[in-house]
Amino acid sequence: MPEYTLRIRRYTPESGDSAHWQDFTIDLDGHRSVLDGILQARDREDGSIGIRCSCRAAICGSCGVRINGKPNLACHTHLDTAFENATDGVITVEPMGNMPVLKDLIVDMDAVHWKKIQRVTPWLIPEGEAPEREYIVPPESMIDVTQTMACIQCSACVSDCLAMEVDPLFIGPAALAKAYRFVGDPRDGQHYERLKNLSEDPHGIYDCTHCFNCIEACPKGVAPMSQIMRLRRLSGKQGIEDRNNGHRHEMAFVKNIERNGLLHEADLLPDSYGGKFHPRAVPELLDSLPVITRALMRRKVTPGGALLHKHKAPKEVKRIFQHVHDKEASYELNLYVTGVEEEDDE
Amino acid sequence: MKVAYWPGCVSRGFTPELHGSMAKVAPLLDIELVELDRAACCGAGVIAEHDQELADTLNARTFALAQKEIANGASLMMNICSTCQGAQSECQERLDANTAYRSHVNETLSAEGLTYERGISNKHFLWLLVEEIGLDAVKAKVKRPLSNLRVGPFYGCYIVRPTDRLGIDREHPRDTYLHQLIEALGGTVVDYAGQYKCCGFPIITMNKEASLKQAGRHLGDAIDAEADCLVTPCPLCHLNLDLQQPLAERYAGRELGMPVLHLPQLLGLALGLEPKELGFGKHVVKPTSVIDWSTSVVASAA
């Protein structure tokens, strides 16, 4: 039987001692899970190791931890894979981030994860009189939300959310993916209200920094960041002008490329605030003045270089914008739903 | 080696020193840059957020233009911006995965006589250095080894995540290439907490505080780890880490002053080019420590 070393982060807040690492040697086949390893260490060496787990089959979402620094389900990670990814041959296991530690590998899901889930009104609010029996919807109209429905609430995405790291009030990836589950549900009658609420919140959909950590973290392929981008897209389509400049920035960017082919940064900043002379833009631009002045002094930004870089095919680029925009519905391909063709499918 | 070269927007706009230093470094490595000057912005994720098909069509057009150059003898398509790499890889993933979708997008391109064929090879300069040129060959051209220069790699997001889309695996540990390059150039790698984190740039107009807290924190971490400078493969990261650094100081609550170099600038320095011709003077945070280091190297050699 192969031996592995698990380096587990230990911490008991009540003890007054600081967190520390403790090594345990376990002997299990490589195809067994890191969770099996933790449980063996608990059975054989130290019954006080704190770990939350239940199904051992990657469906209950209880055993989220960081393995070698990356969030995953302990029951969903093979020991041999974890060993291969470990530096110095030692598998490190520590609690997830962005949440307070209750004991060892157990974090306070109530304090963060579930509070944020509640924030997005995670239930259906249908419109009008309830039907006598069930709500009937065509199956194809529900395919779109199946990706977010795959979420098992393990919070691996929340653990490594980089926006939440600097803004703990950010609603976060798990809850926003859940929000899309209802915004994308044809039975829900509050799409506009939900979108308005999530885009006006300074810690809402426009607080996500596109860092892809949640996509990387999710053991179920939910891709929370992609769901946040879909919420933004729908919010824009509903014409919601949020106070965070989110929609304005998106439109300023799109118009900028349509006009110039390449990004003209000098216009983008003021346009994102509503235009150079918009009351909202003035304080922002004044605030940025020292930076702009310094950039000008260093000749980083020159009128000829940054402001006037001409594109060589403006007509062709404009044509694509018009062609795609003029169509009634845009073709939105979701690989989670369609899958990926094999090489020789053509 | 001839490459279909996509410089992106920012390298020709607010970080002209990136495009400039790339042009200086290329001939030293026998890279011929055929610029894709008719291609459009990759959308940086924002156009995809607005309309996925629009972003996919714009990038399919760029790929099709690159494939024309590849038919004329270019080895592959090369970019110098992590955000372009990430945004274009995302579009390519969809275009390559579904024939019907690709045909649909190609139909839009047909008015211009362009077609995208599945499977273009589009590599960031960093990947090209390691996978096509080889670090041994790069090492052989080093004229001024970065001895005693402590360099912190700042990867950012778009070039390292999601790992499967970006082709990062055991054979291609692309999330270690900056480390490998710094070592090949004779420098000392400084690891610090923020090296794979977000610079905050995408939300600078939406939540300035959160955005600059991110930049400020990573810069502070690098200072605490005693880095002389950072190096980044992404010009958008450079905007938040360098251009916005004076404002980031305010949110970090500490003095910063950490120089941030573009990848070709660090490389150019090791290949013997002078800080001035690499555009070091265009940075908001003057890379004084790096310039001092380069003069001290020259002095000690004399």
What's a quick, concise take on this entry?
The complex is a heterodimer of chains A (346) and B (302). Helices cover 42% and strands 10% of the residues of chain A. Chain A has 346 residues and is of the alpha+beta class.
Defining traits:
heterodimer, A: 346 residues, alpha+beta, Ubiquitin-like (UB roll), Fumarate Reductase Iron-sulfur Protein, Chain B, domain 2, 3 domains, 5-stranded mixed beta sheet, two-stranded antiparallel ribbon, 17 helices, 7 strands, 42% helix, 10% strand, globular, B: 302 residues, alpha/beta, Glutathione S-transferase Yfyf (Class Pi), Chain A, domain 2, Rossmann fold, 4-stranded parallel beta sheet
Write the layout of secondary structure elements.
The complex is a heterodimer of chains A (346) and B (302).
Chain A: E1 3-10, E2 20-27, H1 34-44, E3 64-67, E4 70-73, H2 79-85, E5 90-94, E6 101-103, E7 106-107, H3 110-119, H4 140-143, H5 146-149, H6 156-159, H7 162-166, H8 173-183, H9 191-200, H10 213-217, H11 224-237, H12 246-260, H13 265-272, H14 281-297, H15 303-307, H16 314-326, H17 335-338
Parallel strand pairs in A: 1-5
Antiparallel strand pairs in A: 1-2, 3-4, 3-5, 6-7
Helix pairs in contact in A: 3-8, 8-11, 9-11, 12-13, 12-16, 13-14
Chain B: E1 2-6, H1 16-28, E2 32-35, H2 46-50, H3 52-71, E3 76-79, H4 82-97, H5 99-110, E4 122-124, H6 125-133, H7 135-140, E5 150-153, H8 177-184, E6 188-189, H9 208-224, E7 229-232, H10 235-243, H11 245-252, E8 260-262, H12 263-270, H13 288-301
Parallel strand pairs in B: 1-2, 1-3, 3-4, 5-6, 5-7, 7-8
Helix pairs in contact in B: 1-12, 3-4, 3-5, 4-5, 6-8, 9-11
Protein described:
The complex is a heterodimer of chains A (346) and B (302). By secondary structure, chain A is an alpha+beta fold. Chain A has helices at 34-44, 79-85, 110-119, 140-143, 146-149, 156-159, 162-166, 173-183, 191-200, 213-217, 224-237, 246-260, 265-272, 281-297, 303-307, 314-326, 335-338; strands at 3-10, 20-27, 64-67, 70-73, 90-94, 101-103, 106-107. Chain A has three domains: 3-107, Beta-grasp domain (Ubiquitin-like (UB roll), Roll), CATH 3.10.20; 110-237, Alpha-helical ferredoxin (Fumarate Reductase Iron-sulfur Protein, Chain B, domain 2); 246-326, no CATH class. Chain A has 17 helices and seven strands. Chain A has a five-stranded mixed beta sheet. In chain A, strands 6-7 form a two-stranded antiparallel ribbon. In chain A, strand 3 (64-67) and strand 4 form a beta hairpin. In chain A, helix 13 runs antiparallel to helix 14. The two termini of chain A are 46 Å apart. Chain B has helices spanning 16-28, 46-50, 52-71, 82-97, 99-110, 125-133, 135-140, 177-184, 208-224, 235-243, 245-252, 263-270, 288-301; strands at residues 2-6, 32-35, 76-79, 122-124, 150-153, 188-189, 229-232, 260-262. Chain B has 13 helices and eight strands. In chain B, the strands form two sheets. Chain B has a four-stranded parallel beta sheet, sandwiched between helices. A four-stranded parallel beta sheet of chain B has the order 6-5-7-8, with helices on both faces. In chain B, helix 3 packs across helix 4 (82-97) and helix 3 packs across helix 5. Chain B is globular. Chain B is α/β, with parallel strands linked by helices and 302 residues long.
